[in-house]
Amino acid sequence: MGVRLTRDREGPAAPTPTPRRPETVAPGRVKEVTSVSNPIVKDIRNLALKKHREETGLFLAEGLKLAIDALDAGWTLETLIVARSQLDNELLAKTAARTISVGADVLEASDKVLAAIARRDNPQSAIGVFRQKTVRADKIELGRDGLLVVLDRVRDPGNLGTILRTADAAGAKGVVLVGESVDPFSLEAVRATMGSIFSVPVARMDEAAFLQFRRGFNGFVVGTHMRGETDYRTPAYGKKPTLLLMGNEQAGLSEPLAAACETLVRIPQVGRADSLNLAVATGLMIFEARRGSLSL
Ligand code: SAM
Asked: Which of 53, 91, 141, 210 is deepest in the core (most CB within 10 A)?
């Protein structure tokens, strides 16, 4: 984002040359906004656009609990937009103060402004503008039996968000996005993660880079395929670090990715459906692969 906040009410924002945090953290600033045409609000609303997210490296996450969890997990918060009408909520006020203390800005916004940023009625009391973070796949520690979920060209933000949430719940070590994928930092994907965007490492790479990574991978590589000949419950998961490959919603797994798998498994189906929804199939696979490590 090209703007930093001033303390004025609705005054023009002072430009900042770089969004990076200084080494010594100066306290952030507070600004009140009531107009959706305020340039800061426009800039934040633009984070709904992929192009603007790519240019700024920022994204939006809604919810006070989410913002607190993200701060606790060490994510960089740039701006916290809070509902001015709810500042008597102790936790909200405390989080706003914490935001200032870590050098981020607080935008005290009218309900109308919050709704415009969230692009929905009844928005949450806080929306955070965070710096995006992805990791390198080869830096994700899998240990002796960790699971890494690999998604081939996933297109649907709801599917991706749901898969990240499921990977988090089942203790998978991370998710790798291969090829042209939906942006994990889109509002819809982040919303569907319900906060897991902040706890599951995400890596992105093209197919050639993934195939190279796979060649150096010393573990079990299983793919799911509508023509898989092995029942998905057959492999002895959890004995080695595992890559679980899932196909694109329309096209399934690409030929090179399918050929890179040691085993192609299928989830048995009856009835008329051609296939399962990607997020449902991934959920079944993740819990099957993690079965030995999960107990109540
Ligand atoms: N038309 C696609 C095809 O023929 O592969 C269907 C893709 S399906 C909607 C998306 C992905 O979910 C598949 O590539 C696979 O990874 C997984 N999937 C869905 N149903 C499955 C099943 N019954 N067995 C194994 N994988 C399945």
From this structure: 210
